[in-house]
Protein 1
Amino acid sequence: MKKNKMLIEQLEKDTSCCEKRQLSLYLHIPFCVKKCLYCDFLSFESDQEHINRYVITLIKEIEKKALLFKDYELKTIFFGGGTPSLLNGKQLCQIMDAVKMHFNVPIHCEHTEMEISMEINPGTVTREKLSAYYQAGINRISIGLQSANNQELKLLGRIHTYEDFQKTYQMARSIGFQNVNVDIMSALPNQTLEQYKDTLEKILNLEPEVEHISAYSLILEEGTYFYDHYEYLDEETDRSLYELTKNMLFEKGYYRYEISNYAKTGHECLHNEVYWRRKEYLGLGLGASSFLAEKRFKNTNDLNQYLEEDFSRYEEQELTKQEQMEEFMFLGLRLTKGISLNEFESNFKVSLYDVYGKEIKQLMKEGLLCLDDYHQHLTLSQRGFDLSNYVFRYFLK
Ligand code: SF4
């Protein structure tokens, strides 16, 4: 655990020029109605009293930490969890008011408004709540559906049905939300191709159509009920589910801009791009992570400690140059646009080929990496996307 002083010194050193640096803000709400059986996120059931205290503490953290970021302008805001939609309208407004009051929030015209996202769980929102979120400035919602099959939802330990999702979705649309993501998950225990296809069809036939779809495969995380009770699907079924996602989404006009993320043009998630591009972000709330001045920071995971409001306690990891380059490669290559050779050179003062020439040559020979016509960008090929984990291993020394 380190003290804030070092962070202040580092940030002051890095903000000596007059131009404002951009910062994305992540706010963690760690509470859920019930823990899902596959989930290893920092989230847990709680009572109203703890949620109230948490909101007060989070606002204090906003007030205190914002002082360090006077020279920054916010680029995106993301409420993640947990289940942020457990907050009532008033609590969300109080948090947003604190953010607007203490951080530099850019004033945009209506066509370039700042992306402010919030994760929503079906079964936790009312019209009144959703309207309050909208009024407070939330302009992108991400709905955790996972499956359109009620038996699968039950198996996952989700608290909602597909009908709850439909109700939430229609309510959000009628309130005015125009940028909606739906999370779905494949490779569930015993899942058949037909079952998963049905989920995809239901999502693709939503009216109006959804702007963004995050499609992940189930990961059996150690410490979860699923880890102890289930096995991964066989490789062949898993591969067929993956191909089905790609093909069905492509046919419906979704652009795959990241390994697991698909969007209608212009609706890519700007906040998540900040993570993949290694831009600076500040995470506030329990266990929240930040990336600033090539260092990674992490708040305490202990709720009682967090509620004591000693925000000078956090873990800090300074990345070596080697680690920075590795991250640049395996995070940037997740994106369809890939990585810029010039950006690598300007960041690390060494050419990409001097560091990874041998690896790139080999992976291009295997047809897994491609260079654009101007030799400016390196990207995964279609096959490279399918074998991305294999490719990324090449860049970890
Ligand atoms: S709702 Fe999300 S964060 Fe909460 S337990 Fe389920 S998967 Fe985890």
Protein 2
Amino acid sequence: MRFDYDVIVVGAGNAGLTAASRTAGAGLSTVLLEKNNLPGGFAASFVRGRFEFEASLHELCDVGTKEEPRSVRRLFSDLGADVDFINEKKLFRVIVKGEDGYDVTLLSGEKDFRRSFLSVCPDDEKSVDRLLRLLDETGRAIEYNDRKNGKPNKLYMVLKYPDFIRSASHSIDEMLIYLGFSDKARLLLETYWLYIGVPADEANSMHYLEMLRGYINGGAGIPPHRSYELSLSLADTILKKGGEIRYNTEVTEFIYKDGRAIGVKTEGDEYYAKEIISNIIPNNVLNMSGKHTREKDRKLLNARKLGMTFFCVFLGLDCGREELGIKDYTVFIAKNSSPRRQYEDEAGIYVVNCLNAAVPCATPGGTCSLVITIPVFDPDILSGVTPENYKKFKSDIAKKYISDFEAVSGIDVFSHIEEISVSTPVTNARYFGSPEGTAYGYEMSRWDNLMSRILNRENELDIEGLSFCGGHGPNGPGFGVTYISGVEAADAVIKRIKGVK
Ligand SMILES: Cc1cc2nc3c(=O)[nH]c(=O)nc-3n(C[C@H](O)[C@H](O)[C@H](O)COP(=O)(O)OP(=O)(O)OC[C@H]3O[C@@H](n4cnc5c(N)ncnc54)[C@H](O)[C@@H]3O)c2cc1C
């Protein structure tokens, strides 16, 4: 059958949901096509026995409180989605093993962050104050940029926000050295941020400053009913605004006419629209575009490296967290204090989350859950895996990391396991269609970082009638950014369709 709309959105991940909500809200006939049977993409949950496990989210950055909402809360309320986020004061605890190791918990809020940081790095007072000033300047620079709709006066930026501009062309490591931090303090400030996907001697400091500012000022945001609650509430806004969502509808081909994308094919149906927004990664779109791909676009995608992915071990335990002695919501455990080593060494770093520490009733009374998330920077780790040994491979991963966590924390996990499930990059590739199971789009490498992508926006993949949104976009991965990228893509489409200059 043939269907006609103003806008087709492909993929109901975070960005696809906000994009469809926005175009439907602007009165454009909108259909959102999703290959799975539920919204959210990575922002979902699943049930094993008595436990509902969060599939991805640890914490959202830049949420703020009801009284002082920040970008994510504002975006949800603008779209009409009503979610009451929990604001977790403890940003994270880091345990670094070994002789130069430490165990520290950093808090949100400028004063508390400073105090918690200085409790382990007392000699770094001047540097931390310089960093806080730089974060403040970053905030003002970003607000100015937003006021100018992303087209700031460059000379004004240089004169008004010189330290922010200077830091933007350096790595996190270079920036922290410039601020005069001791080695210990620098490595502590860098550890969490390996979650940008590359180590601090490579990751761009502008990205770091923007995120760190969001965490310190806005706290760590957690939806009480897991990220699926966010996805469902956004899906509801689409339906309320008259948009349509078709689940179990996989797009298999993009249709072009005279170089312009005009529609998509699914099994048995064809959908046509004035504009298409793809929440699916450009690699897959080009693979579904046949001869309509251009050399220039293929080159760009070939040059980019796919971003990091994860192993996750989901554990439902038959005993409450207090009884087990679990105090924290987020604990990073690193073998070595150097992010470069954490990146290059196998099992260099992993994170353990106990949702009950933030949401006490997250699991049935007398139980709790733990999720161990292990970043995978090198997909070759799966090279020896076959269908025959896949089960054993997953079980070995689970045993290895549970044992390590037991040794570091002294907490008995093994004898309390009631449910266990392990996801790998293969799971991601299968459920979300992401190449090599990437959960982060493309790696934010030294040459292809936030700054260079923003400055080179005009060289991004650009197909008439087809725009992109999601963690594979210029602003990179993460919940907050992907929500925003959906809104940005939708606003550009609305302008084009309505002919607004
Ligand atoms: C284990 C893990 C932990 C994470 N932790 C955090 C965290 O704590 N904080 C944070 O900010 N970020 C975190 N992230 C990253 C975050 O989840 C992602 O950046 C974000 O969810 C990606 O959203 P997206 O809009 O790019 O879409 P995706 O989630 O990639 O969704 C794309 C959608 O498109 C659909 N689709 C694919 N192909 C087709 C097709 N052919 N036809 C129709 N539909 C299709 C998919 O089914 C999916 O629903 C984590 C990710 C993982 C995996």
